[in-house]
Task: inverse folding
């Protein structure tokens, strides 16, 4: 990692709760940018994404944190290998 170490995220201990709030804002930002009309293909796609996010967050809340970290690490490695953008967070 280049540059200074980012400050520690005080929300790290309540990761799922903060992720819920952050993802709600992110999805609303996308919905606002798309200006999806009710019933449109974009509206259905966003509804599917919102449902997936809710199910995922509930599963993560019920899963052992070490398993969540392991899966997150695997996804991050794959994204880096594929040249995709990776969200940097304090550890």
Result:
């Amino acid at each position: 990692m280049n540059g200074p170490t980012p400050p520690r995220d005080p929300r790290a201990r309540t990761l799922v709760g903060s992720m819920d709030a952050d993802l709600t804002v992110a999805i609303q930002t996308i919905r606002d940018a798309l200006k999806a009309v009710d019933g449109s293909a974009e509206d259905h796609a966003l509804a599917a994404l919102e449902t997936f996010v809710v199910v995922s967050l509930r599963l993560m809340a019920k899963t052992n944190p070490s398993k969540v970290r392991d899966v997150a690490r695997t996804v991050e490695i794959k994204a880096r290998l594929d040249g995709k953008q990776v969200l940097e967070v304090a550890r």
In short: DSSP finds three helices and no strands in the chain. The helical segments are 15-34, 41-62, 65-81.
